[in-house]
Design brief:
single chain; alpha/beta; 8-stranded mixed sheet; 3-hydroxybutyryl-CoA dehydrogenase; 3-hydroxybutyryl-CoA dehydrogenase activity
Length: 584
């Protein structure tokens, strides 16, 4: 096999090939390039030995399988050649045109491009049927996903050979058509770009944006930290390429990206991007955490908490507060509903005891702190009341109007809405400065994230109070303004909607898209698995809310999502969604 280009990616690919027993001819443009590439390989394999993933003999054998050169002519007898030079169409096309004259007619040409058209590269050869994309993910020796990109003229047996080759390397291949960004980047970079726009608009701090996606979605990294790792220049090139093919405004690189690149702030590789690092290529962040205006404001005292509602979220919030020592009043519409909710809390506490996460004494004490109630007047002396009723604005407004009549002055009034405007709830009261959004994530006893949503009227000490309460109950608060989707849903659901559009266009199968995002990006669930868990009806409602607020064409719900909801295929809860669960 041949590998052209020994940057981080090319050297990683050469290591993967040599590790599988393949003899590699590695080509760089000059001796300095060869020296750097050899250094990448020696450093990476030394780390593998130190980590116990390779022994000294295996490392020596691996390195012996790689021959370095600065001449493309030495690729004359290879069976397959992988090009891994920088993302420049003209440069890649020129390399392939030269290879066409050097190699045998059956040699397969592979480009590792992450965003350029394989078709446009292949037409510069006399063998476009033997040109294919093979997009490895960085670091290539570790990440399993490989996107195999076929063009309209790629020979089927070439695709089959490359898929078998990827499997021989221990990789997980997915086969897709030739479209900007392929699967993973097409879905990932729209989400990353959206996060940059949020930061650019000062909607949320870099720490809160990143924490929201880590704690709220289980992502291994937040979007801005990930951009620093990828490199802002690389991200810009991928987004720009995607935009020129899709003309989707959501792919147009955020202006802040260009400004940072011009200033030399490229991310970890230069030591500074969205964060500042102790040195280039270091993961250690050294700059101070972004300060909030509420950091110096004293919070109000909270000893007694009221929770309005009896659903899963309400009972979860009751459990969270009761376990942490707060006296909690659970207000329901009837004594029967209140009793049933308390029973559900007891069942959850009992499970925690069985699992060894809670002692019997602590469980009993927590249950003893919960008082059921039916009348709003029983909430008169609470310091904080959390509304957790149905996602219906009229219902929530009626609750806030009732609370306004009975709850003592100075109490904080919070709504757990995930999508409705908090200011609309505040407007139903005579004390809008005391109203705040406190969006817990389900299941509330488990999930650490709480989105703290301030309206234009929310008082600073109300935010400080909620922050202090979150700390007291072991939650991680992130702050944002009062607009549709807050942070998590505003970033998550356009990405999910893009995945549906990709499936709708017959570009890739649902299972392949899920695999690409889980294996290639380290996400805990693929988009279709997640949509089926959330519920397609809930997902559609959130997507419609985002579209109605922002009026972005790219936020318009995918027709396929609308059709599935109309057909009653709502996901796991109905047995069928994007996947069929009826036999499980």
């Amino acid at each position: 096999m041949g590998v052209i280009g020994l940057g981080t990616m090319g050297a990683g690919i050469a290591e993967v090939l040599a590790r599988s027993g393949v003899s590699v001819v590695a080509v760089e443009i000059d001796d300095d390039g060869v020296h750097r590439g050899r250094g990448h390989l020696e450093h990476s394999t030394e780390r593998a030995v130190t980590g116990g993933k390779l022994d000294a003999g295996g490392r020596s054998a691996l390195l012996d399988r790689i021959r370095y050169t600065t001449s493309l002519a030495e690729l004359s007898d290879v069976d397959l050649v992988i090009e891994a030079i920088p993302e420049n169409l003209e440069a890649k096309s020129d390399v392939f045109a030269q290879l066409d004259k050097i190699t045998g007619p059956d040699t397969i040409f592979v480009s590792n491009t992450s965003s350029l058209s394989i078709t446009e590269i292949g037409v510069h050869t006399a063998r476009p049927g033997k040109v294919v994309g093979m997009h490895f993910f960085n670091p290539a020796p570790i990440l399993k996903l490989v996107e195999i990109v076929r063009t309209v003229v790629t020979e089927p047996e070439v695709v089959a050979d490359v898929v078998a080759f990827a499997e021989r390397l221990g990789k997980t291949p997915v086969v897709i058509g030739d479209r900007a960004g392929f699967i993973a980047n097409a879905l990932l970079f729209g989400y990353l770009n959206h996060a940059v726009r949020m930061y650019e608009q000062r909607y949320a701090t870099r720490e809160d944006l990143d924490a929201a996606m880590r704690f709220g979605c289980g992502y291994p990294m937040g979007p801005l930290a990930l951009l620093d790792l990828i490199g802002l220049d690389t991200a810009y090139e991928i987004l720009d390429t995607m935009y020129h093919q899709s003309r989707n405004r959501l792919h147009a690189p955020a202006p802040l990206l260009k400004q940072m690149i011009t200033a030399g702030l490229l991310g970890r590789k230069t030591g500074r991007g969205f964060y500042t690092y102790d040195e280039p290529d270091s993961p250690t962040v050294t700059d101070a955490v972004t300060k909030s205006t509420v950091d110096t404001v004293p919070p109000r005292e909270v000893r007694k908490v009221g929770v309005v509602g009896t659903g899963t979220m309400a009972t979860g919030i009751v459990e969270v507060f009761a376990k942490r020592g707060y006296e909690v009043i659970l207000r329901a519409r009837s004594a029967e509903k209140a009793a049933a909710s308390v029973a559900r809390v007891k069942k959850s506490l009992d499970k925690a005891v069985v699992k060894g996460k809670l002692s019997e004494e602590d469980a009993a004490a927590a249950l003893g702190r919960i008082s059921p109630a039916v009348e709003f007047e029983e909430l008169a002396d609470v310091d904080l009341v959390v509304e957790a009723v149905a996602e219906d604005l009229a219902v929530k407004q009626a609750v806030f109007a009732a609370l306004d009549d009975v709850v003592k002055p100075g109490a904080v009034l919070a709504t757990t809405t995930s999508s409705l405007p908090v200011i609309e709830c505040a407007a139903a009261t005579s004390r809008p400065s005391d109203v705040v959004g406190v969006h817990f994530f389900n299941p509330a006893p488990v999930m650490k994230l709480v989105e703290v949503v301030s309206t234009i009227a929310t008082a600073p000490d109300v935010i400080a109070t909620v922050d202090a309460v979150c700390a007291a109950v072991g939650k991680h608060p992130v702050h944002c303004g009062d607009r549709a989707g807050f942070i998590v849903n505003a970033l998550l659901f356009p990405y999910l909607n893009d995945a549906v559009k990709m499936l709708e266009a017959h570009y890739a199968e649902a299972d392949d898209i899920d695999t690409a995002m889980k294996v290639g990006c380290g996400l805990p669930m693929g988009p279709f698995e997640l949509l089926d868990v959330v519920g397609l009806d809930v997902s559609l409602a959130i997507q419609r809310t985002l579209y109605n607020e922002f009026r972005e064409e790219g936020f318009a719900p995918a027709p396929l999502l609308e059709h599935l909801v109309t057909a009653g295929r709502l996901g796991r809860k109905t047995g069928k969604g994007f996947k069929d669960y009826s036999a499980r």
